[in-house]
Design goal:
The chain is α/β, with parallel strands linked by helices and 251 residues long. The chain is built from 8 helices and 8 strands; from the N terminus they run H-H-E-E-H-E-H-E-H-E-H-E-H-E-E-H. The protein has one domain (60-250): Glycerol-3-phosphate (1)-acyltransferase, CATH 3.40.1130.10. The chain has helices spanning 3-32, 36-58, 86-94, 113-119, 130-145, 173-178, 190-193, 226-250; strands at 61-65, 76-80, 100-104, 123-125, 149-152, 181-188, 204-209, 213-214.
Length: 251
């Protein structure tokens, strides 16, 4: 896509975000009056609409498999590979249940984005301050135990087309300490949409969900290898998705 097309998409993205934020502000006020569960659902639906608008104007062809593996009730953790800023858009569009995520504290100063992270019940983490970071993780655990959903990117940073990076030590503690259902998932094609050239390129993207793993049922002796197990599941899904894409391209 040429530069003009990218500018048009950015304008649509920005204008739709501003419009939906004005509605979300009203919902936030109502939420503060005590209607938490219903307002959280409506706020997520607004974010989902925004994500679907982005997918539509970008021209991406989205494929989703395994969405039935997302728990309908109770707390859960999504565990995903992380290639691009577009990953959040894909997950907002596909998960179907409200979820928050732990974002780096630098995003606290980004207008609108910071507000939406808070609206979606996300948390900001200061990785340089261990005490504050532990407090953030503990708050995430509390929310999961209360029935919320949280998203984890165990790589800790975006892969940017270099393949899946090693998981950071302790990256799954949010799920294991909460005893939550973990849903491994693989995202493909997101890096090529925008970050590869910083211009929008229509193309195939996919989100594939694996069956959930019950962290509470994992024996203590196996919890030290749980990160390796989840890594292997996601890596296998990525290889299968990339293999299917290669076959499709040849056909």
């Amino acid at each position: 896509m040429n530069l003009l097309g990218t500018i048009v998409i950015f304008c649509v993205v920005a204008l739709s975000l501003v419009f939906l934020t004005s509605i979300a502000l009203v919902l936030f006020v109502v939420r503060c009056l005590g209607f938490k569960r219903s307002m959280d659902h409506l706020i997520y639906k607004l974010a989902q609409v925004w994500a679907l608008i982005i997918l539509s104007v970008s021209g991406c062809k989205l494929t989703v498999t395994g969405r039935e593996h997302i728990p309908r009730t109770g707390g859960f953790c999504l565990v995903a590979n992380h290639n691009s800023i577009f990953d959040i858009v894909l997950l907002l569009a596909t998960v179907g249940r409200p979820f928050g995520f732990i974002a780096k504290k630098e995003l606290m100063v980004v207008p609108l984005i910071n507000f939406w992270i808070l609206l979606l019940r996300g948390l900001f983490i200061d990785r340089k301050n261990i005490r504050k970071a532990i407090g953030t993780i503990n708050e995430g655990i509390r929310r999961i135990k209360a029935g919320a959903g949280m998203l984890i990117f165990p790589e800790g940073t975006r892969g940017k087309g270099k393949g899946m990076l090693p998981f950071k030590p302790g990256s799954l503690k949010l799920a294991t300490k909460a005893g939550a259902l973990m849903v491994p998932l693989a995202i493909t094609g997101s890096y090529d949409v925008f970050e590869k050239t910083y211009r929008f390129h229509p193309g195939p993207v996919s989100v594939n969900f694996a069956p959930p793993m019950a962290a509470a049922d994992i024996p203590v002796e196996d919890k030290r290898t749980i990160a390796d197990q989840v890594y292997a599941i996601i890596d296998d899904m990525l290889k299968k998705a990339e293999g299917s894409a290669s076959v499709g391209a040849r056909l």
